[in-house]
Structure formats: structure tokens, C-alpha cells
Amino acid sequence: MTMRFGVVGLGGPEPPMAVAASSSKTLKALKESAARALHFVHPSGNVWKPRHLFTETPSGNLRELQENSQITEEKVLWVEPPWKAGSVLQQGLTSRSRWTWGARLYQSLSRLPCCLPLYRWRSSAAAKGGRGAPRREQKVQKDPKRPTHFVSLRVGEDVQRAALKVQQELVGQADEHLRKDLERCLIPCGQFHLTLATLKLREEDLQVIREQLNQVSDLAGFHFKLKGLESFGQRVLFARACDDGSNGYAALCALHTRLADAFETCLPGVKKEAALSSETIETISTQEPEAAEADVSEKLSRFLTRVLRHDAKRLGLQMRSDGSVALKDLVALSFFRNNGFGEADVEREVKHNDKQRFSLWLEKGIKRIRANQGHKMKEVVDSELLTPISSSQELPVCIHGTYMKRWHHKKKSYVDVWPAIKREGLKPMGRNHIHFVPHEVGSRTVISGMRQDCTVAIYLDVPKALAMGIKLFRSSNDVVLSRGNECGHIPTELFAKAVEIKTGRLLWPPEAGADIATEEEDCFQPHMTLAKTSRAHDGARIPESCWQALRTVELGVVTADSLELCRMKGDPQTGYYEVDYKVSFKRSQRERK
């Protein structure tokens, strides 16, 4: 039986996939096959088996594979790696050794008490590369597991404008409850590339490839049609080149053939994978020019949030019982000096913060600033910071957003969130209050108090809560807060209902005779968005009809004016690629005249 495996939780431009043959359908054998197929092998020879296997449900979600689950060859098994997400790309942990007699002897000796300290030292050194890392890297470079470069055509701004227009029209035609999800999920158009080939190159091969690109620069710019848009991750768009019988598409195919033959001739040992076909062309978009300014604003916002909610007292700031500090004392911290921020930057962030996290005012000639909610410091008094809610008429809707399962950064694993809430109720989780929003899920009026990727909505029975003595408050940015009962909890008997946001399925109160397995079907939320489902970014879901509108849209005739050699990086923070070499196409004789 041949199985296909994919990794969940790894960042990068494309989901790693592998195919392996498995003679047994047992869960243990499938984990062994997945580990070897995906190269989960330590340099010391240990095979790191995945902790969990997941299979896709008919609704497009992931469900953990059990021992008695039915497995067929058509299904893709998704693997949760046995280490933290992203480490396989950062440290390059690939299959570099096989199970030989030396590795088995090493494993046997490691069980002896006298050899245990040495074994731990060798294991930690091997995880960082080890003493033999240069030799291993030389072996890996001969046959690397992933492409290192790609050759692409730079597409002009006409297709960017066409794609942006399509996205705006789609958002405008959507229903009001879907419009916010669409705005959050659609990727802004940046610089586009049409990938012609992906290459596995060494540093000494780069000059040869550059010479081959110069030889084809005598061609004119290409004009051809693109059709369809589809997104994956947060940086990649996919489109299809239309074979409309025009000279532009024929020239595009001819360029691809010419480059493939040139690469094979000049570098016979290089391994290449042609990406050009009549069905799909990868189109990679870079970060927009405004992204750098957004990153600076995000950095300042995160620091203000941390200080004003959690660390003001530890940093020596004089905080009043209403949670405010003097702005001049705040900007005197070393963070502002080291990053060049001043009072004007703080005022700008307070004014333009999308979630209205902060308040700034002038009091007796002194500017004061505070966080509107989310404090952990016990010195903050509710009555001086918040507005009490005394009647249920003031709060017709009160919703708490949460998850089925969520990644725990300290435990390095997924933890059950909704099952724990069903047992223990809602807790403040280290903060002073439990957060709610006073609007329905998907409403454009929801600014703060609920994450956009929440998968479960818990409705609070406000009249019953007030009757039991639960105090509710409203912050200045319209977030409902509560400290709970005398134990600091909001028990489940105060839940009016709980629904799954994506499907509308009722989770609470539990139905009589409900199947527990059915309730837990799609509780797994991977960090990496899957390209083959209709799930979009940040946990939102776009209807299939909207995806079909994107896939079939005509982008019109586009222009490719340059050829580029790009180096793959696979880092979402600094970008998925960088341009190593660029050559512009020369104009034809007719264009020169």
C-alpha cells in the first residue's frame, strides 16, 4: 500500500509532501513509514516518530487517526512533527545517516549508566550540527532535499491591478457577515513572479546559470493571459496561464524549453523540476512597501501592550489605580531611546491602533496613557477603569471566543481548550478578567476582545449571571469584562449556548445521545494553512462559491519584462526568497522604432 504524507505546522513556501510504501496498516507502522518518508531522522541515526497522525474529514478538517480507523491509499495522512514547528527548516534536520551496525551499537551503549552523560552531550551536539556537520553538509549538498533557487519571469503591474480589482469586487458582492472574513483572508498584491523552473544549485553553479540567462535576454517582453487566483500561506498566490493559441503563450513555452535545455547542457548533474504547464504557474508575491512601516507600528504596539498591561510596576513606572502612567515617564524607558520612538509616535499609535487598546488624555498639564483592558496587575481597580453593567438590557449579546485545540508554546504541544472549558468553566488565565464581546460573531463592530481565528463562540446568559452576583464591566474600547464568581470562574451553568463558528454546530448544551467523536471531529487547528481545503488564513473560512469565483476569473493580458534568479529562503519573517540576479528583456526591432 502506498501512502502520501504531509507535515502540519511547518512554515515555508509549500507544504512538504512525501510518498512511502507501507505493508501494514497499523498505527505504529504508519508512524514509522511517515518518519522515514519525511526524513525525520536525527544525525545520530535515531528515527523521530511523529506523536500524532491526522486524516482529512469530508468537511476538509483534520481528525486524529486512531488504531481502528479505516485507511485507504487515496487519503493523505498529515503528520505533527515531534519537535517544535519550524525547527526542521531552521536547523536542517534531514536524513543524513542510515541504521547501520555502528548506530545500533551506539544506541545500545547509550543505555549504560556510565555512558549516559556522554550520550546526552553527543545528542545535544548533533542537534546543533555536531562535530561532523561540515562533512555532512558536503554530502547533503550533493543531493539536497529541497530546491535552492527558482527562475522566474517578473510580471508587470497590469496583473497586480487586475487581481486587486477582482478582490475588491468579490468583497463588495459578499454578504455583510462574510465581508470581514474576505477582507482578512485575501492577500494584497505585491510583486509577481511566474516560475519557470525550480533548481537545486551549488554556489559554483550560479555564474553558469547567470550566463545562460543573459543569452536569452535578446527576447522581447512576453504578453500572455492569466486565469484564476488561489492563495496559500500569507505570501503565495497561484494562477494559471491560458493556452488561447496566441503567440505570447507559444513564446512562453518556447522560453521554458530553451532554458531547460540550456540548464541540462551546461550543468548535466543539476536536478530541476519544470513548473510550467498549461494548468498551473506558481506566482509569488512579496511584501508591500507599507509592510516595513506596519512592522515598526506592530513593534511599538506590542511593547506598549506589555508594559501597560503587565510590566509597568516591574519597570519602575508610577501607575495609578486606574491603570494609567505619565507619558513622559513611559518614553524615558530605554526601549524608546534605542528604537528612536518619542511621544509623537506613541500618540500616533494610540490614534490609529486597529483594536483601540490604549487611551491617552491630558490631565493637569500632564499626558497620561493606559491600556483599556487586559491587565494582569492587581493594583488596577475596576471601578476607576471600567463602566459597570447593571442591567441585562445594556448587554443583549455577550460572547466569549475560544478554540477547540490550540498550540501551547511552553508545552510545545496542542492542548484541549474546549474540553477543559466544559469541565471547569471559563477562567481569566492569568489576567484580571475574562473577556467578552457585546456583538455577534462576524460583526464589523467587533474591534477587540475576541481573536479573529477563534473557532468556538460561548454565549453568556447575562440575566442569570447578574442574578448570581457576577459583576460585568464595559471598557472604553467596548470589551465586556468579568472577574467571575468568588472562585474566579464563570461556570458552565451560565452558558446560554456554545456554537462552532465555522459550521454553526451546537456544542452546548450537549444534545442527548451525541457522539463524542463527532464533537471532536475538527478540533485540530494546524498552524499551517492547507492548500487543498477551502480554509483561508487566520482560521477564517471562505465559502466554496467565493473560491470558485477566484479560480475562474480572467486576469486579462499581462506583461513579463524581466527574468530573475531567486534564492529560496523559506522564512516568513524576512521573506520567502531574495533576488540573486536579474536580466531585462531587450525590445524587438518594431518596439525600438
Q: Kindly state the number of beta strands.
A: 26
The CATH C-level class name of the largest domain: Alpha Beta
Please give the count of helices. Answer: 19
Q: How would you sum up the major sheet?
A: 8 strands, antiparallel
Which CATH-level-2 architecture of the largest domain?
Answer: Alpha-Beta Complex
Any idea what the CATH superfamily of the largest domain is called?
Cyclic phosphodiesterase
Q: Helix content range of the residues, please?
A: 25-40%
Shape verdict: globular
How many structural units, i.e. domains?
Answer: 4
Would you give the CATH topology of the largest domain? Cyclic Phosphodiesterase, Chain: A
Distance between termini?
63 Å
What does it look like?
- This protein is of the alpha+beta class and 593 residues long.
- The protein folds into four domains: 141 residues, no CATH class; 188 residues, Cyclic phosphodiesterase (Cyclic Phosphodiesterase, Chain: A), CATH 3.90.1140; 81 residues, RNA 2'-phosphotransferase, Tpt1/KptA family, N-terminal domain (Arc Repressor Mutant, subunit A, Orthogonal Bundle); 154 residues, ADP-ribosylation fold (Alpha-Beta Barrel).
- Strands 6, 7, 8, 9, 10, 11, 25 and 26 form an eight-stranded antiparallel sheet that branches.
- β3 and β4 form a beta hairpin.
- The longest helix has 21 residues.
- The relative contact order is 0.13.
- Its EC number is 2.7.1.160.
- This is 2'-phosphotransferase.
